[in-house]
Structure formats: C-alpha cells, structure tokens
Amino acid sequence: MTIGVALNTVDTGNAVDDVVEQARDASTAGVGSVWFGQRFDYDAITLAGIVGREVPDLKVGTSAVPIFARHPLTVLSQAQTVQAATQGRFQLGLALGAPQLVEGSFGIPYERPVELAREFLQVARSLVETGTADHHGELLTAAPKYPTTVAGAGTDLPLLVAAMGPRALRASGELADGILPFLAGPRVLENSIVPQVQKAAADAGRPPVRVIAFIAAIVTDDVDAGRAAAEEATSLYDTIPSYQRVIADEGHERAADLVLIGSAAEVRAGVQRYYDAGATEVVLTQSGLLGRETQRETWAAVAR
C-alpha cells in the first residue's frame, strides 16, 4: 500500500519551518508522500518545493490548486520549477474550486468549470511534454513567445485533478494522470468514480489513471473527542454541493460521518476498504485534529 499524508501549517511561529518539521515526522513514520492544499495564505506549490528540498526521501504534491483566477502558463512555470528542485518528486494536483470561494473571493463568475479544466489540462500537457503550447480555445489562450522549459524538470510531471462529478471524471480520464477524490467513500469509489474515470481513459486509448483517495483518519482511544473535532473541521464540506452529493451517495448525511476514528486496527481496516474499492493510493488527512502526537501515531499506524 502507498500511503501519503496531507500537511497543514500552523498559525503561530514560522509556518514553513513547522511544516518542514511535520514532513520529517511523516518520513520517520514511513510515509511516502506529503500533500498541500491551496489556501489564501501560503502558496501550495512553493511550499511543496521547499519541503521536497528539505526532506529528499518524500514525494510532494498539491491537493489541489484551483484553476479559476490562474493561468496554466504561470502555474506550470511554478510546477516545473519545483519539479526540477525536487529531482522529479513533485505532483501537480488541480481543482475546479467551489462557486462561493471563486465568486466571493476573486469577483469572477464560476462558469463552465469542466470546460475550463479541460482546456487547462490540454495546455498543461502540451507544456510538460513539448515545452510550449499553441492553444486558442473558448476560455483560454496559451501561446508563449519565449521558451517555457525548465532544465531538469523533465517531461513526466504528473497532472492530477480533484474530480468526482461525471463530466470532470471524463475530462480527467482523457487528459490527466490521476484523480484526487476526497470524502468519496468506498461504495462511491467502487460503483461510480473508478469505473467512470477508467472507462474515460480506456476510451481515449490511455492507460488506467491513478486514483489517489484522500481519507480523513485519526487513530485514538478517545473516539468522542475525535468525532467532535472532525465535525468542526469538516462542516464546510457539508455546504458544498459536489461534496454533498458524494456524501449522500455513500449513505451519510455529513462529511464527519466519513472520518475514520478508532484504534489502529480499525483505521487500517477502513483504509483497506478504499484499496479494495479501486484506490491505487491513499492520503490521510485531518490526522492532526487531536494534536501532533496523535498525528504521528496515526501516520505510523497506517504507513507501517
């Protein structure tokens, strides 16, 4: 089993120093990769590059960078720079974002997200594989007049998408290297997400894509405390339609219902169900809700 973990920065002290320390803890626990979500404070791609240089035995990735208010030329410039800096250990995860965040924060309409993702991926693929692009689409233009290749970045930067809806899964299967589903339980993975994305890849004449399942998990004897912390931390997802759908399809009412909380054996068994459902890799999230020591214990219990 391939286990990764999602890391979050702290609000006091030095956020970058702290996340590097967390990454070293993850490496000691036997974890293979660390991932960073894009927020409004730190830059996820930059942070992944720093961690990848400081902890050279870990793969690093973003989970994920929203495409609205960003252009593929600038995102791929960042990504290829980090790919060179980490000697090929970087993975670029992209996201469609959510209407309330895009429109409320950037003042731009959340329109045609799947079409935008498709064009974004077409440009990104061309930049990675050919070193340039000549794209003149409905939503994006990318025709750089100067070289875009970063020496040392190579031509195999993984392009991943946080996709769960049918149209996004189709675009990902046709154009991406993998998907990053979160809060999609084993039933939804096995019956819906995995078949759709792998069929899209096969129909496009491509090999099967990676299915990297992000799973909230806490190993603890204090299940009540873990549940309370999980309910608070995941409440935002209960308001986002794309997450509401996959939570309901799994037979639950709230995001917190999908958090694995319990003994090491119970959490490992829960993780195994995702592999059985078709996940190729698993990334643990929310493991630090009860403190750093519980976080370390959770990582070690699952990774080993």
Automatic annotation (TrEMBL):
Keywords linked to the UniProt accession: Oxidoreductase
The UniProt record lists the keyword Magnesium: no
Family annotation (Pfam families): Bac_luciferase
Statement: the UniProt record of this protein carries the keyword Cell inner membrane: no
CDD domains named among the record's database cross-references: Tetrahydromethanopterin_reductase
Residues covered by the Luciferase-like domain: 11-280
GO molecular function, one term: oxidoreductase activity, acting on paired donors, with incorporation or reduction of molecular oxygen
NCBIfam families linked to this entry: F420_MSMEG_4879
UniProt xrefs under PANTHER family: 5,10-METHYLENETETRAHYDROMETHANOPTERIN REDUCTASE, PTHR43244
Protein name, UniProt field: F420-dependent oxidoreductase, MSMEG_4879 family
Organism listed in the record: Rhodococcoides kyotonense
Lineage: Bacteria, Bacillati, Actinomycetota, Actinomycetes, Mycobacteriales
